[in-house]
Design goal:
- The protein is α/β, with parallel strands linked by helices.
- It has 10 helices and 6 strands; from the N terminus they run αααβββαβαβαααβαα.
- It has a single domain, classed as Zn peptidases (Aminopeptidase), CATH 3.40.630.10.
- It has a 6-stranded mixed β-sheet, with helices on both faces.
- The longest helix has 21 residues.
- It is globular.
Length: about 300
């Protein structure tokens, strides 16, 4: 090949790569600001001012970014006393095929009322700030909404923000994921698949396939690994790790293929130190690129 022709092809390749990157041009700094905003609102325990403020803010952000927003409110009596919970659902339509079952990306927006894992026993009845455990997943989903505001997804996409994930008793897994249980009991039609983002902003990010996801939704779990390879996400790994009880379990039990994207190796989990300084803009951006590939480029996004 002649030198001029060679450099022409190099330039074309670089321009194509730049265009591909621009399609998933997420903003980690913006995502981190959204994490900080949620923490500044205070504890997001159902019934508190911080919870209502963040609920209203998420709904407003989705509407601003072109989503059709609805609230799924219901009473839950898991802990013996009726409690009002509200899931937030935003929907983005494709140019065609809006009647196909949606692809769901989900996260929880509530925070734990007790820092039961805090090294200081005097703080274990203090609500956690929930920067990584709650706010990071919300921020990632809103980054995907930013992209969908500019480019229609190939199939219907719903962003679902679960309430009541972290209100459970410490040693009773059946008292967690109450918003997800309410959603799974009411959703119609069933989503094509669901991707849960929980604790995805750790400064020392290391995301492995979650074992329940691999065992019960292997094809969907493998797509997360494929997504990470496609967008060159260096902190995603192929080896499964941990069986987690999380919001994906009620979805799996309802027959919805669902996976948990989570980095559970997080020292500030359920402590008062779960603060924005433990969360990285780079980690949020990396996970957001993976989420964007799942929405726009995965086989599921284009399937019937």
């Amino acid at each position: 090949m002649r030198p001029r022709a060679r450099w022409t092809w190099v330039l074309v390749a670089l321009m194509a790569a730049a265009c591909a990157d621009a399609d998933f041009a997420v903003d980690g700094a913006r995502a981190h600001r959204r994490v900080a905003f949620q923490c500044d609102a205070g504890p997001r325990i159902p019934g508190t001012p911080g919870h209502r403020a963040v609920q209203d803010w998420i709904a407003a952000e989705m509407a601003k970014l072109g989503g059709t927003v609805r609230l799924q409110s219901f009473m839950d009596s898991t802990l013996g006393t009726p409690e009002s919970l509200t899931n937030l659902i935003g929907r983005w339509e494709p140019k065609s095929g809006a009647d196909r079952p949606p692809l769901v990306l989900c996260a929880h927006y509530d925070t734990r009322p007790w820092a039961d894992q805090d090294p200081d026993s005097a703080k274990r009845r203090t609500p956690i700030p929930g920067a990584n455990d709650g706010a990071s997943g919300v921020a990632v989903l809103l980054e995907v909404a930013e992209l969908m505001a500019k480019r229609k997804p190939p199939r219907p996409v719903e962003l679902v923000f679960f309430d009541g994930e972290d209100q459970g008793a410490e040693h009773d897994p059946n008292t967690y994921s109450r918003g997800a249980r309410g959603y799974a009991a009411r959703v119609e039609p069933k989503p094509r698949a669901a991707f849960l983002f929980d604790m995805v902003g750790d400064r020392d990010l290391a995301i492995h396939p979650e074992a329940n996801s691999v065992e019960r939704a292997a094809n969907v779990a493998s797509m997360v690994v494929s997504a990470a390879k496609a967008v060159h996400a260096p902190h995603f790994f192929p080896e499964p790790r941990y069986h987690m009880t999380d919001d994906h379990i009620p979805l799996l039990e309802a027959g919805i293929p669902a996976v948990d994207i989570i980095d559970f190796d997080y020292a500030a989990w359920h402590t008062t130190q779960d603060l924005p300084d433990q969360v990285s803009a780079e980690s949020l951006a990396e996970v957001s690129r993976v989420a964007a590939w799942l929405v726009f480029e995965s086989p599921l996004s284009k399937a019937p």
